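A reminder from the course coordinator: this example appears on the midterm review sheet, so study it carefully.

Given structure:
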């Protein structure tokens, strides 16, 4: 979503064009797709990595950086994050993320000043730090679990990374990362054990608490103490006619911080 709320960007695949990826531009005022941007580039092996489902929007609203699932033409074992210029409406560059395993679930987020972009690499169990000035990876931060969602503190000094325990995938996890040193300072392990986990993540406006999705519940974490201080059983909130388990995969705060919205993946409710 653009900073002014006018434009919403989403990805999709054009199967009639041999799986070519596209970015769809939605005018939120009229709630309609008004433009689409083809995701093609001579930097990318044709047909690879254009089915990404995640990207980050630069703070100035001019560029999108895709998750790293596109294969480089110069070395097909290396994955690229594509840089899309929203004014030119085309792919203009790429960041080489290295010989990683492609995973369309990888997430992308910018630092508040736009100088760095952060990637969670689920299968690699790490996050990468890249410079938007040099378009080079400048750091790799190992994690003890498979990361999915990532949020930054409002001052850009900390990252909050949610994911799943890598062996049984039965527990949600949250890492708190100091971005001034690029070190993990704390990892919080969820209390509910039942696969698969649903590690949705939201951070309150004052960065004091994180809401971590778990199985059938949301766990509330105090950031300063890195401890679970409360939880909400989502099953108990189901109404007549709701079916399935509760899988809180997407969580978001309202602008004023007064309410939290939870999208429930398994039961198709909200």
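Designed residues:
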């Amino acid at each position: 979503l653009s900073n002014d709320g006018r434009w919403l960007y989403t990805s999709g695949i054009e199967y009639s064009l041999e799986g070519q990826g596209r970015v769809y531009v939605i005018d939120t005022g009229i709630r309609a797709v008004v433009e689409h941007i083809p995701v093609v580039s001579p930097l990318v092996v044709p047909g690879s990595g254009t089915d990404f489902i995640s990207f980050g929007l630069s703070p100035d609203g001019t560029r999108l950086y895709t998750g790293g699932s596109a294969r480089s033409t110069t070395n097909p074992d290396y994955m690229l994050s594509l840089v899309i210029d929203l004014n030119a409406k085309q792919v203009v560059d790429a960041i080489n993320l290295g010989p990683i395993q492609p995973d369309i679930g990888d997430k992308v987020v910018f630092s508040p000043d736009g100088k760095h972009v952060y990637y969670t690499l689920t299968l690699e169990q790490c996050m990468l730090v890249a410079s938007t000035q040099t378009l080079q990876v400048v750091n790799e931060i190992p994690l003890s679990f498979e990361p999915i969602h990532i949020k930054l503190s409002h001052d850009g000094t900390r990252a909050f990374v949610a994911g799943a325990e890598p062996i049984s995938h039965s527990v949600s996890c949250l890492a708190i990362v100091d971005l001034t040193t690029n070190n993990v300072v704390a990892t919080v392990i969820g209390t509910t054990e039942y696969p698969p986990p649903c590690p949705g993540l939201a951070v309150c406006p004052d960065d004091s608490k994180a809401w971590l999705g778990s199985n059938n519940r949301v766990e509330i974490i105090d950031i300063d103490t890195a401890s679970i201080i409360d939880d909400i059983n989502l099953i108990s909130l189901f109404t007549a006619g709701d079916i399935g388990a509760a899988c809180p995969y997407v969580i978001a705060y309202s602008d004023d911080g007064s309410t939290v919205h939870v999208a429930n993946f398994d039961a198709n409710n909200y």
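The longest strand covers residues 90-98. The chain has a mean pLDDT of 85.
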